[in-house]
Amino acid sequence: MSSISKTAFNWLGCAAAGAVALAMLAPARAEVYGAHAGAPAATAAAALAVAAPPPRPAPVDLAKPAALPQAAAPLQNSQLSCGAPPEFTRLNYPLRHTARRLASGEPLTIVAVGSSSTAGAGASSPAASYPSRLAVELKQRFPGHDITVLNRGVNGDETEQMIARFATGVIAAHPDLVLWQVGTNSVLRDYPLKPHSVLLREGIAQLKEAGADVVLIDMQFAPRVLAKPETQGMEDQIALAAKDENIDLFRRFALMRNWHEVEHIPFDAFVAPDELHMNDWSYACVAKLLAAGIAEAATRPVASAAAHSPH
Prior knowledge:
By secondary structure, the chain is of the alpha/beta class.
């Protein structure tokens, strides 16, 4: 055999040996890296039984700028806790008339009168307004009682317009308790405070004369309210009127301020996009805390002791 023939024979032998070796290694490689398209089903099944290595990173296109890190997800309302310090939700005066109705098992009628934040502007539906949510909360606290909450809120109403509706929209319903949300629109429209103080006290006198318990609800803590110069003056006026007339005040402004400044809840979590009205979460939370305040004021010992005394 010539030297050329020997060389060719040796080369063919090496190639054959190499092919045999590759054929033997192929199944093992398939177990480690997973079956490729067209691989036998048994090989693919074997690949699933072995922990696969982490996927290879996608090739980087250096011609494109690097992606910015994703911003943190905004705080979801479902993550918020509805709470407040007791001094913001406790009613100072007992609700004697309401207490008598609850103690006797008679139907309880509550009228919520006010402007758009009583009507429910900013809520997803009428059922999400604070009066609707208040009815749900009170019925849970007093099961078996006949409790009705009437919503007499009108978008854009000012104090004078609310009082003009008292006779037909509030007193005609023979309420046991009136919740009067007041002050915001007068501040938003830059009305002077002194004439408003006279109107406010006239309205309180009408409601007390009707024989109902009265709870004032002050303004909302929202950017468009805070931008007005008379905001603090109106808050002081409402608080002083409640004190002088011996009626209760639900401190909505302080409650919402606590959410923002103490609990560090951003405005967009409890204020509607218009930066004025509340949203479903804040309406529901206000209703829950107001219901707790009403329940306590209508069941505290002094109210129970006076259950049969003249109102």
